[in-house]
Amino acid sequence: MKPITIDSPTPRNGKTGALSRLWRTPSLLAGSIMLAVLVLLAVLIPLISPYDPTKQDLSAFLQPPSAEHWLGTDQLGRDLFTRLIYAARTDLTIMVLAEIIPFCVGVFLGMIAGYYGKWLDTVISLITDTFIAFPFYLIVIIVAFASGAGQRGIYITFILVGWIVFARVTRGLTASFRRQEWVASARTLGLPGVRIMLRHILPNVLPQAIVVLMTDMVGLLVAIVTLGYLGIGITPPTPDWGTMIFDGQPFITTAWWLSAVPGFAVVYTGIALSLVGDGLADLWRKK
Amino acid sequence: MRFGSSLKKSAGLGLLTILLLGLVAGCGGGTKSAEQTPAAGESANSSANSTEPAKGGTFVYGRPAAVNSFDLHNQITANNAFAIDKVFESLVTFDSEGNIVDWLAESHKISEDGLTYTFVLRDGLKFSNGNAVTAEDAVFSLQRHLEVGGPLAISAKVDAVKAQDDRTLVITLKEPYTPFISELSNFSNGIIPKDFGGVSEEEFFKKPVGTGPFVVDNWDPAGDVTFVKNPHYWQEGKPYIDKLVYKLIQDDSQAINQLKAGEVNAIESLALQNANEIKQGPGTKVLTNGGWVTEQLFFNTLDEHFSDVHVRRALALAIDRAGLTNALTFGYAKPANSLLPTAIPYNANDTIQPLNFDVTAAKEELAKSAFPNGFSTKLLVASGNSTRAQEAQIIQAAGKEIGINIEIESIELATFRERFFAYDFSAMLNSGQADSPDANSIIAFQTDPEGFSKSYWTHYTNDEVTKLLHEGQKTPDGDGRAAVYSKLLQTLADEVPYIPLYYPDILKGVGSSVEGLTVLPNGSLRFEEVRIQK
């Protein structure tokens, strides 16, 4: 009667079980390692690199990679490797922070819309459908432009548009759970709606929401980089992959690495996140 | 659970997106250089076998903006100016060094008192329709310009414009105005037939008739223009080419690719950072000339912080102009000391005492200001210009050294213009350009608080400077005028309502097979002697 056992919020077999499951899910393993490497670099960069990411040296600009500057220097004589990793700090931090609120809000709204249905569902669905009707980047660019360049603009933009995808996913799932017997029995037992949602439905929608979160983070990262590239995202001198790609673009034929390396960093992070998301989906499906 | 497969798909889609992004960013270089290799062999062969360069042929010029009007009295922007000057010519012109030379006039004379200008037209001069050019045509042309005014209005106080005989034109002024002869070299003082040759104004400018080397053959105001050679051109045998096409290529990188592929013979707009690529390219070269442009950091002198002269001086002292020029211009610019580019007479660039890079002095200067502990401000920059974006970052870093926290505000060009026209900025990056080779051109635009530009929207007002500005306009050419401008420019260098950063060269990307192309210091080209090797 209860499909709920497919995932209980408490880990069942403790550490060894989790580890062995990780081993059996190679994509999750690979993704986690890739992410861990990047995060570790981002945390330790002040110890690894002797350079300041914003310190200019106008006498040492556009140097090719060397032992001193592993990836060379940019047009203003800043160490490219240092900027690349500091940019990972900037972009990953924004990516995570800008997802937290939309994730919580989206899951919450989706759940109540799906559970209570009726007018509440109509209103929330109307809003999500309206947003979905516009191309994502159109909304992003309009909102980012209106709220001004810089990190504040990025947060505002993604808080405004980011929750939609989570709301849609959780709403659909909740609505389908609601029609199933285990929810019906809980209701006949007289449990309050809030309790049913938090204790029974949430643990069931959360895995899928988290998998969606991983995919969505990839999209968000690309959007942050795109805004930076377009000059309406992170403002200089804060290092960011998007502005680095833009800054390097004029030298694409003479010093291709200036743009290609930050481009590669975006691809790398994207692959890592996608692998984690994929792996989590596999993991939860296998159980 | 069901959701596994659909999730995988969306994860894959995200992956695909970023992979594509990476490809776009990373792969341009490799493929391009592969394409170039065969072209290298070709051009080496053709130059080895070259004999007498051929006459005739079609020259295709890639330009970023379309020609939308030939009305010489109402236009100022390069897209129109550099087409108008192919069709209409002036009595005098400037050569590639910026010297004034006789053009439609075979000689000119300026009276001792600077009030009477006498021009004698060349013998046998004809319009492109075969009609003779008389002094009456010149009178009509200048009269219309005086009536219309327009963006390049004649600023001399003209008393009368008269035709003494068929070939002699006399202009009298109410008071001396030394820059007059140089302003007459503007394309806006070109000669058109009297009464538009008998057609309406509108019709005339649709099918313009002038004395220039080329005649408009086919014109799409939102696209390309095709010119054919003027059979009656006064320089016999010229132009050597039969046809000239202005091809609209809005995107700079596309223009570069078309130049490399040989689809165009030259491109008008070549960014500094692409110059070396074109210079080293197998089938391409770069033509340069010193320009009439000064890249500058402008201050709004009504701004809370930048109204303080010590603040402006402090920032000027904090900026390493030589380093900035070196890092951003790849040898295609000179660091600026004076407001006037070195291609303009009386520029005083070598004699002036500018505020040179000195962080200690900058800090001392800021200590004298009303903001000894620094402040926060914004720097307005038009987006999409990568050199300016880098420049802004250098200035930001320079400000940081002395405690001025600068936020870069990068906005789209149209909004940028609106903002500074409304004095809605604290500091901005922009450039000043002379329209004619006279010191007055830039100086009047940038120091006259009563002029329409209000000292280039800085609102800089200094009675002494204004007095010198007017004195410079009246003083005849010579040491006296040099002294006036050197004093004026020194005052500007001391009070820095704007910081001259560098003088960028004019850069044109040209195919290797092109010979005889002349680059003028205003950015225009002279095609009369162009030959294209086969």
From TrEMBL, chain A:
* Keywords from the UniProt entry: Cell membrane, Membrane, Transmembrane, Transmembrane helix, Transport
Residue intervals of the ABC transmembrane type-1 domain: 88-277
The record ties this protein, via PROSITE patterns, to: ABC_TM1
Question: Where is the protein localized?
Answer: Cell membrane
Q: What is its main location?
A: membrane
Q: Mention one GO biological process in which this protein takes part, according to its record.
A: transmembrane transport
What sections of the protein cross the membrane?
Answer: 28-48, 92-116, 123-146, 152-170, 205-234, 254-277
Q: Which GO terms describe its cellular component?
A: plasma membrane
Q: How does it sit in the membrane?
A: Multi-pass membrane protein
PANTHER family with a match to the protein in the record: D,D-DIPEPTIDE TRANSPORT SYSTEM PERMEASE PROTEIN DDPC-RELATED (PTHR43386:SF1), OLIGOPEPTIDE TRANSPORT SYSTEM PERMEASE PROTEIN APPC (PTHR43386)
Q: Which family does it belong to?
A: Belongs to the binding-protein-dependent transport system permease family.
Its protein name is ABC transporter permease
